[in-house]
Amino acid sequence: MHNSALCYLLRGNDVLMLHRVKKKNDINKDKWIGIGGKFEPEEAPEECLLREAKEETGLTLTSWRCRGVVTFLSEGGEGEYMYLFTADGFEGELKECDEGDLEWVSREFLSSLPMWEGDKIFLDLLWQDAPFFLLTLRYRQDTLIEAVLNGKKIR
Questions:
Q1: For 60-82, how does the pLDDT look when each residue is reduced to its tens digit (9 = 90+)?
Q2: Of 25, 83, 92, 94, which one is least surrounded by beta carbons within 10 A?
Q3: The domain spanning residue 102 has which CATH number?
Q4: How many domains does the chain have?
C-alpha cells in the first residue's frame, strides 16, 4: 500500500481539474482528476498536499482541509490510501502542468467528464459537505465493483 494526497481547489462554483493527457503509461490517461500525488519518504499528508499543489499548479495553498481517507483496492494491484482535501484559499499564478491540462470546471459539468466511477462517489460527498469519511473503493481493472462508506456497503 502506498499513500497519496488528492486535492480539489475551489473558486466559487468552479473546481480546478487536471485532464491527464501528457504522461506516458498513465493509469489516469484521458481522465479528469484533482491535483496531487504520492507521498515522498517521511512526508506527512499535508506536506504532500502542499508540495504537490505547488509542483502541479504553481499555487501555494493558504486554506485547506482534509475531508476523508479513500482506500483503493484493486485485484492484483497495489493498494493505496488517499488523503482527500479541498482548498478554498491559494495564492500565486497558475502554471502549466507537465502531467496534463489544468482547467477550471463548473461543478455542474463535472459529472459529464471522463473520470473514475469511484471519484464521482467522493465528489458527491464533498459537495454534500459530508463530515470526515472513510471510503473504500474496490476495482477490477477499470470497473468499480464495491464501495463501502464508513463501514457500510453502498455499492
A1: 999 999 999 999 999 888 899 99
A2: 25
A3: 3.90.79.10
A4: 1
